[in-house]
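Progress narrative, Year 2. Work on Cytochrome c domain-containing protein from Pyxidicoccus fallax advanced from sequence curation to structure prediction during this period.
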Amino acid sequence: MRTLRSLLGAAVLASLALSFTACTEQATARINDSAGPGDPNPNPDPDGGTGCEPASKNDEIRLALAPACEGCHRIGNVPIFASLSAFETGLVYNERYVKRGDPANSLLVQMLKGNAPGSYPQMPPGQHYDELVASGRVTLTIEQVEAWIRDLPAPPEQLETPSPEEFRVRRLSAEEMVVSLMDQLGLTLEDFVSTSNADWRNRAYVVNWNKFFVWPGDWSPGISGEYVSDQRTIERFEALGGGNSLQYRKKDAIFGPSAGQTLVQMSQAWCGRAVDKRNNPAVLRYVTLADTSARNPDAVQKNLRYLYLRMLGQPPADAELKALYEQVYLPLESQSTRLAWIGTCAALIRHPLWITY
Ligand code: HEC
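Result:
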């Protein structure tokens, strides 16, 4: 499930906003320079629309419309400005919005003019597109959009084919973090609370007390006096970015400082539980706590490699494995192998590849 994600994902995500704006300006300038909207693109850009040069005529239009639209349509219900392929599949070659060769009957043009039928007569809502042109915020005119639709080429054949260059990254939700971490670390509810006691719902829970339990406030069997008897359990979940429908609390779509802080504590506490749990091969698969880098270096390396793959879903690059070994495992091993494996496990959980999907 995680194999498609690129290591660069998080970094690219962070830099996208900056480069996108710069590209938008360039594209606008280009459109105004070009001889006419019907021109076939003489230099198709091989980089698939990720660089500043528009990849195609459609890409020019996308980048030129972007200042007026992308604020609301990069993400959300209608993410048609998320990428060139989103723009083409969602808007350009979606008959509902663009009728090839027929601008007058294209909803897109009607929306720009503010006279579209239906719930959304005008885009952007509440503002005339022409005013944006007049103010210089966008330079692509409605006439140019019409001319582009009139001469719109047929959709490329590979339109529906998934492209390996396209990726979307988002943070894991708090629910996903709790569930996948339990699974990866070989932990169950029983490691935190005693559900096997027939009377567990009616007793103040003390079993495995203080093990940094994190659980949604609105999940079954959470709505018992038992689970919520430690209010911190739910508070931690909310700090992790989780919502609570019982309290009208929305989940947090970004990964902020409180989520980071909670994940640090949670990763350390839960990795500790996983290492200490008897007969649990989740973290200690090829080593025991008696194996050290001096006594059994191969087993340590093998287990590091295994743990990386288990937590992040892809094999480590040699350099990354080396860094993990030298900067995380070894310094902690001088205190104890137990600490070394807990620390390594927790470091992987804070890795961008673990946090994103
Ligand atoms: C201020 C925010 C905002 C801006 C700017 C904006 N839109 Fe929208 N757009 C919306 C909202 C809200 C909807 C309704 C769907 C949704 O919930 O996202 C919508 C819906 C749409 C739809 C789907 C309509 C339907 O009936 O299916 C299209 C197509 C669209 N917008 C195109 C555009 C284009 C093109 C631009 C730029 C010229 C633009 N939008 C600018 C907020 C915006």
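The longest helix spans residues 9-33. The mean pLDDT is 82.
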